Amino acid sequence: MDAKQGAFAVRLARKAVEEWVGKGERLARPKCGKCFLAKSGVFTTLYTYPGRDLRGCIGFPSPVLPLADGIIEAAISATQDPRFPSLDKSELDKIIIEVSVLTKPERIPAKKPEEYTGKIKIGRDGLIIKRGARSGLLLPQVPVEYRWDANTYLQHLCMKAALPSDAWCAAGTEIYAFRSEIFGEKRPNGAIEKTAAKI
User: Fold this and answer.
1) pLDDT tens for residues 74-104?
2) Which residues pair with 192 in a beta bridge?
3) Which residues are CB-neighbours of 159 under 8 A, at least 6 positions away?
4) Rounded Cα gap, residues 59 and 138, in angstroms
5) Domain spanning 106-178 has what CATH number?
6) Who has the most CB within 10 Å: 51, 59, 112, 176?
7) Per-residue model confidence as pLDDT tens digits over 4-57
8) Residue of 71, 59, 61, 73 whose CA lies nearest to 35
């Protein structure tokens, strides 16, 4: 995804948020390029500005929707992230928006759980855990922000899925990795840049 496409993705998320929070209306998919019509996993993240505290993050880990539709749906859902109060109109100029476009998740092959830590690269790999009916996901920028090593990353991934922190070591647990391209606003309604994890 080039800079122009990344900027389009973030502006689309911003418009979806503004239409939903400001007018209670669901944004219709606008005219867009072919890459936005292909199915892709995507997450929309809202941060406070300038503090950059998490304000909402929702998305689709698997490619179940055309990218444009996924951005719109994820953006709307992020304003109602159950971990936080619903986003208010007064906050629209006090948040920055980030869009993460995901590759298709692939299971990490491992004969023994100890092999996972050597195959996970912090800042590159987002992770998904699946065990029974439970699952959880962490985007690749999360362990960088919190300065986690691979072991700690896996522990928090388990907790995200409401599993014991050592569930990644248990037989029957599946760990998947994906990568993402991340574009975000530098300030509310401001310039958009591609961001990379600072390791």
Assistant:
1) 999 999 999 999 999 999 999 999 999 999 9
2) 185
3) 136, 165
4) 11
5) 3.30.1490.150
6) 59
7) 999 999 999 999 999 999 999 999 999 999 999 999 999 999 999 999 999 999
8) 71
Burial-class residue 19 by CB neighbours within 10 Å (0-12, 13-18, 19+). Answer: middle
Backbone dihedral region of 149: left (phi > 0), alpha (psi from -120 to 50 degrees) or beta? beta
DSSP per residue over 144-188, as a string? Answer: HHHT--HHHHHHHHHHHTTS-TTGGGSTT-EEEEE-EEEEEESST
Higher-scoring residue by pLDDT: 62, 176: 176
| Residue labelled with tokens 């072919």 | 34
User: What are the start and end residues of each CATH 3.30.1490.150 domain in the chain?
Assistant: 106-178
Residue 199 near residue 123, CB atoms below 8 Å: yes
